[in-house]
Amino acid sequence: MQKKKISLHLLFSVFFCIPFVISFTSIFAVFAVSKAEAQPRGAAPVLSFGTGAVWSTSTYQGADNNVIAIPLIMFSGEQFFIRGTGAGMHIYKDERLSVDLLGKYRFEAYEEGDSPSLVGIKDRNGTVEAGLAAQWRLEQAVLSCQFFTDLLNEHGGQEINLRIKKPFRWRMFFVAPYLGVSLHSDSFSNYYYGVDASEAITGRPEYDLGWTANWQAGMALRVGLTQQIMLNTLFGLEILDQEIADSPIVDQDMRFFGMVGIALGF
């Protein structure tokens, strides 16, 4: 029976958000269009509250899958917003292009007690990251690019997310399938998937990674049960870079993730 891990300190998780924590990332960062993203400039702020749960399969050897309870909070104003696991400010915004300053907390972390294969490895911690994001709304799709860097020097690296999604609306239904890739610097990759010389033992050799690329695909679905109450779901797949899959502390080459929640909008 899988061990469920409940965490109520995820105060800024919102529509279609995983985190990957999905350990997250990685997960992370998902890109279904929220009401906040669709809000025209000059419109009244959007606010919603709710609750939900996210789950993901573990990539680390012997570690349990994750189930995490989350509050769903989203706010979008003229200049500032709360979205996903962080918040931001619009630098530029028109009908086609938006450029934002972003800040977020990365929950991706593990402790040596999470798995027998991690015993003797130093705990990996979450961190605060900041960066820039740009989003282009085309006729048939939405393209986005995000860049984040570590402010607390935990992993000391960078992440670049490239996404394409195709939103569909039909009455009270909103569907957004997406494809994307997340690029991670060598410092990031080694922090979460590498093995230092001091951590190497028989069966767990020293392991060093370069830049890595994880591919993702999934679908977000929002259903308006009433004018104010929304059911939000997301499910997806992440294919790990071969260097990550070959790590001696990893025993999977992909992970699945999902989210379900209900929120009241104002």
From TrEMBL:
A Pfam family it matches: MipA
Key words, A-Z: Cell outer membrane, Membrane, Signal, Transmembrane, Transmembrane helix
Listed GO CC annotations: cell outer membrane
Keyword Transmembrane helix in record: yes
InterPro entries, sorted: MipA
The keyword Iron-sulfur is annotated on this UniProt entry: no
TM segment ranges: 12-33
Principal place of residence: membrane
Domain of life: Bacteria
Cell compartments where the protein resides: Cell outer membrane
Entry's family note: Belongs to the MipA/OmpV family.
PANTHER family from the UniProt entry: MLTA-INTERACTING PROTEIN-RELATED
Protein name listed in UniProt: Outer membrane protein
